[in-house]
Design brief:
- The complex is a heterodimer of chains A (about 350) and B (about 350).
- Chain A has about 350 residues and is mainly α.
- Chain A has one domain: Orthogonal Bundle (ABC transporter involved in vitamin B12 uptake, BtuC).
- Chain A has 14 helices and no strands.
- In chain A, helix 5 packs across helix 11.
- Chain A is globular and about 65 Å long.
- Chain B is an all-alpha fold.
- Chain B has one domain: Orthogonal Bundle (ABC transporter involved in vitamin B12 uptake, BtuC), CATH 1.10.3470.10.
- The longest helix of chain B is centred in the first third of the chain and has 41 residues.
- The chains are: A mainly alpha (about 350), B mainly alpha (about 350).
- At the A-B interface, helix 6, helix 7 and helix 14 of A face helix 7, helix 8 and helix 14 of B.
- Chain B: It is found in: Cell membrane.
- Chain B: Pfam families: FecCD.
- Chain B: GO terms for molecular function: transmembrane transporter activity.
Chain lengths: ~350, ~350
């Protein structure tokens, strides 16, 4: 799988330096980013305005611009919907960037933190920390989530990447499925020992944003934001890696070191996201492909697009889940699964479309 | 004249030898299953000597309390392990032979995950019990298997693409299952989660009877059809040219395999990777390419029996059978991947 640039996006697809982007194209892509930012702002507003308690738009503005006002509606907005929306934005960006890095490092169009078992590893580590070691706060168990995510990343990728062909989609998916099966059955076994934990676990396991209040956001935000910021700078090394290990090495990039650093960033992003919202699959799979469709194979553009489109998609799915089954709600993990599984299958069927 | 007869004769002798060897292997595996069956009933909080187990099982116990321990506590579990293992081993072998792919097990084909969702939905949403749940498992398994078959596209199922499709569909099913768990009552969720790990300890009598009847009919039937599988292994084109009605054979075998795995899932939950491992292990033991479905089934039974023995007795507290098979199966998959790496095909 040699990196073949989309002919429309690059004049010379196989040059060794990152492809030159014309000024007009750059302005277009920058405008696209602004557009995505606008969409994110609109969705964030809807996420705050819509919910099982109907709140007028005027009240929503009051909540922000009139700090002295107090009413039940304002409490709902300030204590429940705003943290939820902020968390959705941070988690969406983290998962989308994690998926982009993963697809870039593994040079594999089907790499996804959920399918590859990274989220399952984080979930097992979190459950173990809570149940067996007695860690209570999200800021405490997030460290275990990093370890769990790191272990399963190394395990799955190491298993799939040995051998001449490297990490093919089938080997990655298989290794991920095996690791997920084992990790999640152990997770259930640990949880079954305690009824209270089971009750909490079953709501967390779906992948949901409800019931996350401000403290959870503040505990996890540093990791999500730092991880995302680091990931945004990975464009150049990812572009070089996309040319293949040999070319990257010839261009003077320390391939093994780059990979290890990128994997560490992936573990932080996916571990923190899982600690915040539970194991959400398929978001990290879909967003990079949408971004790649918009801006071509240059990771310096794909990464910022992913960082904006991830929250857009997550918020859209979260709002959908709230509106469709109001006054109850369909957890965001289920909505993403229903949207994402067909996308995964389509990618698996028409692989020629998405060769990396 | 003699020159043409000689090879025929040696060919026949070779065939006869192979048949004898196969028969001996089948007998040996059956005895092994029976021995482990008895042994699995001797261990527990009270040890009952193997001979006493046999006597109590056939109705003339040495001591009165043996009857209670064997019939009430240990026999149901031991029987479940055997029938579930037979069903999983047979269905895995059928899928693997039919699709000519060592990874074509219900674990990856989505049959198990489809049956899971159907059973959890039946249990949580509609309060189904007993045979209704078995039926739900069969329907769910079928629907998912059919969906994957069609989504994988023309000819895709014998390659590797269907595994990707199967994993995608399984992931969707898993997220639906966790949604059902989240909206269930706590008690239902707890029961469903225990069931989802897979354990032979909680099968109900109705499940075991349904599975036993299905095995009595389908195991001999698919073993007979399995002889025709050897023609299928030459590829669809050649098989058709040789006069095999591949369509009907395939459909019937697929039907039998789905029914078996769905009923086994309804009885004991999705016990991971048994169907995946049984066929290849049976092939290893006999050292031949063409393998009887019966021997794969017997190996499946042995795997579940040993896994359940380990699950009950190795750790201080008993764990679920599915965890043990998961821990054995994951390295096996790793080994398949590594082997594929070496040969360069995948």
């Amino acid at each position: 799988m040699v990196a073949t640039g989309r002919p429309s996006a690059t004049a010379a697809p196989t040059t060794t330096t990152p492809p030159k982007v014309s000024i007009a194209k750059r302005i277009g892509l920058g405008g696209g980013l602004l557009l995505a930012l606008g969409a994110l702002a609109v969705l964030a507003f809807f996420s705050i305005a819509l919910g099982s308690r109907s709140i007028t738009i005027g009240t929503v503005f009051d909540a922000f611009f009139d700090p002295s006002a107090i009413s039940p509606d304002l409490t709902v907005i300030r204590d429940m919907r705003v943290p939820r929306t902020l968390l959705a934005i941070a988690v969406g960006a983290a998962l989308a960037l994690g998926g982009t890095l993963l697809q870039g490092v593994a040079r594999n169009p089907l790499a996804d933190p959920g399918v590859m078992g990274i989220n399952a590893g984080a979930a097992l580590a979190i459950v173990t920390a809570i149940m067996l070691i007695g860690v209570q706060s999200a800021g405490g168990y997030v460290w275990f989530a990093f370890i769990g995510a790191g272990i399963s990343t190394v395990l799955v990728y190491g298993l799939a990447a040995t051998g001449r062909e490297g990490a093919t989609p089938v080997k990655l998916a298989l290794a991920g499925a095996a690791v997920t099966a084992v990790f999640s059955s152990v997770t259930s076994a640990v949880v079954l020992a305690n009824v209270d934990a089971l009750n909490e676990m079953r709501f967390w396991q779906v992948g949901a944003l409800s019931g996350r209040f401000m403290p959870v956001f503040w505990q996890l935000a540093p990791f999500l934001i730092a991880g995302s910021a680091l990931a945004l700078f990975a464009g150049r090394p990812l572009n070089t890696l996309a040319l293949g290990d040999d070319v990257a090495r010839a261009l003077g990039q320390p391939v093994a070191l780059t990979r290890s650093i990128l994997f560490a960033i992936i573990a932080v992003l996916c571990g923190a996201a899982t600690a915040a919202a539970g194991p959400i699959a398929f978001l990290g799979l879909m967003v990079p492909h949408i971004a790649r469709f918009i801006c071509g194979p240059d990771y310096r553009w794909i990464l910022p697009y992913s960082a904006l489109l991830g929250p857009v998609l997550l918020l859209a799915c979260d709002i959908t889940g709230r509106v469709v089954t109001a006054p109850g709600e369909l957890q965001v993990g289920v909505v993403i699964g229903i949207v994402g599984a067909p996308a995964f299958i389509a990618l698996a069927r028409f692989r020629r479309l998405v060769q990396l | 004249m003699t020159k043409t007869i000689e090879p025929t004769r040696s060919f026949r002798a070779h065939r006869r030898n192979r048949a004898r060897w196969g028969l001996a292997l089948s007998a040996g595996l059956t005895i092994a299953v029976a021995v482990v069956f008895i042994l699995s009933m001797t261990f527990g909080s009270v040890t009952v000597a193997p001979i006493d187990v046999v006597l109590a099982t056939i109705g003339s116990p040495t001591e009165k309390w043996h009857t209670f321990i064997i019939y009430e506590l240990r026999l149901p579990r031991a029987v479940t392990a055997v029938v579930v293992g037979l069903a999983l081993g047979a269905s895995g072998a059928i899928f693997q032979r039919l699709l000519r792919n060592p990874l074509a097990s219900p674990d990856f084909l989505g049959v198990s995950s489809g049956a899971n969702v159907a059973v959890v939905a039946g249990f949580v949403l509609w309060n189904l019990t007993g045979y209704q749940l078995s039926l739900a498992a069969i329907l769910g398994g079928f629907a998912t298997a059919a969906a994957i078959y069609f989504l994988a596209g023309r000819g895709g199922i014998s390659g590797y693409r269907f595994i990707l499709v199967g994993i995608g569909v399984s992931a969707l099913m898993a997220s639906l299952t966790s949604y059902l768990l989240a909206r269930a009552t706590l008690n239902d969720a707890r029961a469903a989660m225990t069931w989802l790990i897979g354990s032979v300890g909680m099968a109900k009598t109705s499940d075991i009877i349904a599975l036993a009847i299905a095995l009595a009919v389908l195991l001999p039937a698919s073993a007979m059809l399995g002889k025709r599988l050897r023609v299928l292994e030459l590829g669809d084109g050649t098989a058709t040219a040789l006069g095999a009605n591949t369509r009907v054979d395939r459909a019937l075998l697929m039907l039998a395999a789905v029914v078996l795995v769905a009923l086994a899932t309804a009885a004991a939950g999705p016990i991971a990777f048994v169907a995946l491992m049984a066929g290849p292990i049976a092939t290893r033991i006999s050292g031949r390419a063409d393998e009887s479905i019966f021997r794969a089934a017997a190996v499946g039974a042995l795997i579940v029996q040993f896994a359940d023995l380990a699950a009950q007795h190795v750790l201080a507290t008993p764990i679920s059978t599915g965890i043990v098979t998961g821990f054995v199966g994951a390295p096996y998959i790793a080994w398949i991947i590594i082997r594929a790496n070496r040969s360069g095909a995948a």
